[in-house]
TrEMBL record:
Keywords from the named record: Isomerase, Metal-binding, Zinc
Alphabetized PANTHER family for the sequence: FUCULOSE PHOSPHATE ALDOLASE, L-RIBULOSE-5-PHOSPHATE 4-EPIMERASE SGBE
Top-level lineage group: Bacteria
Organism: Nesterenkonia lutea
Class of enzymatic activity (EC top level): isomerase
UniProt cofactor(s): Zn(2+)
Name used for this protein in its record: L-ribulose-5-phosphate 4-epimerase
Length: 246
């Protein structure tokens, strides 16, 4: 198939893509702000559903950062637009501006988890130290029950560059309440309804990785009973926060 260009999409699709490029560029600033990344090693993406405006066979695209570019230099105009097979479209960025090296993993998640609208990857220090040991973070804090609905699971060891990481994320998170997976000896990947929710999960994943690590330095924290985890999860997911307020 020849390279798609943005001008093949409808006006409303272009507006949705432009808005998403701004959202994804802005959310990348949260990674260094929350101390989740070193240098350029972390990325955020968000799906754009094109609905009835889709030029067949492209029902959705996603927006992700270019690889290896400083967070300070990320703007809406250098966010890369890809089809769900991970191919960059002609998106008015330079042809030399390659998407993140984790693009194939994000694309695999979008293809296999239709409810997921945002994906984040970081190498945040404490979560990555659990990943380095291949150790599940046990649900010993109410915040974990709230956000993750249980333990933060570990996914398989997988090499970067093809579908392997994406397959590991999907295998681990499909059917799980957790929006975070610690990929074995790599680091955390998080998902959400949109990129903002996935960034939130990345921030909270690092927070619970840090606090459980600190707790274990002085003792053996106890896992919360399953019925209490279920009650906390139900309350946080359904009652916490403001109604009709992002
Ligand atoms: O884990 C790795 C590399 O080992 C990746 O997560 C990269 O560190 C992400 O960098 P970008 O290509 O997104 O800039």
């Amino acid at each position: 198939m020849s390279t798609l260009h943005l001008n093949e999409f409808s006006d409303s699709a272009n507006q949705a893509i432009a808005a998403t490029r701004q959202i994804v560029a802005d959310l990348h600033a949260e990674l260094p702000r929350n101390d989740l990344v070193a240098w350029t090693a972390g990325n955020v993406s968000q799906r754009v559903d094109l609905g009835e405006d889709a030029p067949e066979p492209v029902p959705a695209v996603f927006v992700i950062k270019p690889s290896g570019v400083s967070y300070d230099e990320l703007t809406a105009s250098n966010m890369v637009v890809c089809t769900l097979d991970g191919t960059k479209i002609d998106d008015d960025t330079s042809t030399g501006l390659s998407p993140s090296s984790d693009t194939a993993a994000h694309a695999y998640v979008y293809r296999h988890m239709p409810a997921v609208g945002g994906v984040v990857h970081t190498h945040s220090a404490y979560a990555t130290s659990w990943a380095a040991r291949g150790e599940v973070i046990p649900c010993v804090l109410t915040m974990m029950a709230d956000e993750f609905g249980g333990d933060v699971p570990v996914g398989p060891f997988a090499l970067i560059g093809d579908d392997s990481i994406g397959r590991g994320i999907v295998e681990t998170l499909q059917g799980s309440r957790s929006p975070a997976v610690l990929m074995d000896r790599h680091g955390p990947f998080t998902i959400g309804a949109g990129a903002q929710e996935a960034v939130k999960a990345a921030v909270l994943c690092e927070e619970v990785a840090r606090t459980v690590h600190l707790a274990r330095a002085y003792g053996e924290p106890q896992r919360i009973a399953q019925h209490q985890i279920d009650a906390l999860y139900a309350r946080y997911q359904n009652v916490y926060g403001q109604k009709d307020h992002a």
